[in-house]
Amino acid sequence: MRRGAAFAARPTPWPARYWNARSTSAPRSHRFNCAVPACCSQASGRLRREAPMHDGLLRIGSAAVPYRYGADCTDGLAEGIEALGLGSAIVVIDEAVQSHAEPLLSRLGQRMQVRPIVIAGAEQHKRLSLVEEVLDRAVAEGADRTSAILAMGGGLVGNVAGLAASLLFRGVRLVHLPTTPVAAFDAVLSLKQGVNLRSGKNLCGAYTAPAMIGCDLTWLTTIPRRGLLTGIAEMAKNVLAVVPGRERDFEEALANLPDRPVAAFTTLFELGFDSKAPMLRTDPNEKKAALVFEYGHTVGHALESVAAGAMSHGEAVAWGMLTAAEASAQLGHLGDADLKRHYRLLSHLELPAPRIALERFDLESLATRLRSDNKRGHIPCPPESAPMVLLRRLGEPVADGDGMPLIPVSIGTALDAFEKVTATEEL
Amino acid sequence: MRRGAAFAARPTPWPARYWNARSTSAPRSHRFNCAVPACCSQASGRLRREAPMHDGLLRIGSAAVPYRYGADCTDGLAEGIEALGLGSAIVVIDEAVQSHAEPLLSRLGQRMQVRPIVIAGAEQHKRLSLVEEVLDRAVAEGADRTSAILAMGGGLVGNVAGLAASLLFRGVRLVHLPTTPVAAFDAVLSLKQGVNLRSGKNLCGAYTAPAMIGCDLTWLTTIPRRGLLTGIAEMAKNVLAVVPGRERDFEEALANLPDRPVAAFTTLFELGFDSKAPMLRTDPNEKKAALVFEYGHTVGHALESVAAGAMSHGEAVAWGMLTAAEASAQLGHLGDADLKRHYRLLSHLELPAPRIALERFDLESLATRLRSDNKRGHIPCPPESAPMVLLRRLGEPVADGDGMPLIPVSIGTALDAFEKVTATEEL
């Protein structure tokens, strides 16, 4: 049963009285009880020095979204949320990050009604049926038009809760509290909310500006290294397609990851923010210049779809970027030095050997996926081709006459480029 | 199975070749084959004289929505839709109005790809699951970002297809083709799209401006008289709460309905348009002054919910308006003459005798529904009260300091007023 699968059956691990400021038994103060060992005890002073609070306004079109990123910053996040003047907070939490939620939510619970909804964050649950369950639970928990939905988890929770906030009473406020690198540095810096249809990924959604984005970077330190790949791949994409001058920052962050993770995450956040913010200001719905962030995502989505769960988004996008670079070179846009820099930069991702990872893919299955790529409607695209972001130089996409960074590439060219990546000795 | 219940199983009754301009067998011309006997043969000249095409732009906030209302106006509607430059038209059609669709869709099919999706329009299907089915069918029929969803049917089809258009690829264009009076004169003149949750009516939705609204008023002439009640009740609401000077137009339209239905519908359309347009311009999301259109809908929704399908929306709203008028009088806002005018105007609706219709309602069940009325979040509202639109005069709601036309009314007062309506001898 979907409901059973998507909703964590286990009871909330915190005393219920923590969640409700209106309950007479709610404590006026609480013992800080952070689940991240490196965070609030011996290391907190060091982390604070490493990563001062980044806060400000992210402008996405006409929306100004307050953001707060820091380490050991429960109070700062809570104050930001309290300043929204919410009637109540419905908190959609990935079951994997419940321990991170406790300090923040018990702090919030002193001032407002806080209601957690714990969900399991698997891609196959990212459907309208899960959104509907969240909506029904929110109403049952007393949500009204003055409530906000807080999304605490990775990209999936952000998307599901984001769409739920867009739809509940035709829109209540949304607060993103990302707990994975890809969510924190990439996915939440966007108006795009969405879920999958049976017929394809992210085909159903809405554009909604969050009322706030907040992240305690110590939440990210508990992600296993393999789980970091997607966030790192998206930041590599930003370096290659948008801000090549930040290559050293990127490499420095990767080097810092094992021993100084908060410093590394701070650098990666700055990289993500600085790449996306200027584009989002003028292209809030990411339908024109900001389509450059789709670099690597045409072949990437096709690989992910054919692999049906056996390849992470980050790995698929990495192969997709190499394929796009090979296609750019093959079509005479990209020089050999910039192509080689792709391989060098992406070697940091510790991808599996290309032959082992890619030879198993049936080219006809990939071609089928490429023919129905969901970026087709953005530009006129002949049937035997797929819309791809190509580069003429690092940081400089090939644009059509209207400045659209999407080019129809014949399926044959795309598959030739993919075979070059499969056969490469560069990684 | 929901899918079986909501989707009409019967095959589309028109030759498939009519639907696809790209098919080589698509005819370049077609014989006009209107299903409304009074429309295109002997009477069409008269109808055309009775009802010249109304077209223009409806301004809803910053959106300018082209509308076209006329009789026997297939060509005019088709030209309006063609001018949108659609990649394809996905037409969501209520199975009850398929015969009305044929002339328009076969005309459109000469110029663009037209794909019908026939659904059954029952209230219990108005859920996200039906929206998801429409979305999956649309993608399977080749919809892309250049497509539009056309909604042809009553309020339910408009709502389901409207929300589907809001969500597909995060928003494709929406064309409303209303075929019932309440849809044509009321529901489609709005940005509000929405479906029901298990926990309540219309709790899940979006604000989306249609790309066009088009209506051939002859479509409305096939609705049985009882089916007209909801549209007429909403127009009576407009007279009572917004434009009392139009009372004679309203009564004249009702008198014309049996013999000159198109003339009657034209008057009712003008009444609906003139009531809503000025409010929508300044309050596009209907969260402030336009909440006056909720007149009668607090007790109305409670009755409808308790009756669970046994009372039409129009009848429920009529009783709701009488209750709101009695409460307004009881609280010293509304004078006796204006209260009496409510009974006089609503007597035209041929409602059943109040005792027979209303005595069967359990007051405690009504109270429960009133306590969770979905307008609560618009204003602060104490627990034992419900937000209602009250009148101080016809056309003049009682407003709070911020100009909000909603007042918290104690459940006791609301139920007292309801009992007065139940016991009335005025109808």
Automatic annotation (TrEMBL), chains A, B:
<keyword id="KW-0479">Metal-binding</keyword>
<keyword id="KW-0520">NAD</keyword>
<dbReference type="GO" id="GO:0003856">
    <property type="term" value="F:3-dehydroquinate synthase activity"/>
</dbReference>
<dbReference type="Pfam" id="PF24621">
    <property type="entry name" value="DHQS_C"/>
</dbReference>
<dbReference type="GO" id="GO:0046872">
    <property type="term" value="F:metal ion binding"/>
</dbReference>
<dbReference type="InterPro" id="IPR056179">
    <property type="entry name" value="DHQS_C"/>
</dbReference>
<dbReference type="InterPro" id="IPR050071">
    <property type="entry name" value="Dehydroquinate_synthase"/>
</dbReference>
<protein>
    <submittedName>
        <fullName>Iron-containing alcohol dehydrogenase</fullName>
    </submittedName>
</protein>
<feature type="domain" description="3-dehydroquinate synthase N-terminal">
    <location>
        <begin position="117"/>
        <end position="227"/>
    </location>
</feature>
<dbReference type="Pfam" id="PF01761">
    <property type="entry name" value="DHQ_synthase"/>
</dbReference>
<feature type="domain" description="3-dehydroquinate synthase C-terminal">
    <location>
        <begin position="231"/>
        <end position="375"/>
    </location>
</feature>
<dbReference type="InterPro" id="IPR030960">
    <property type="entry name" value="DHQS/DOIS_N"/>
</dbReference>
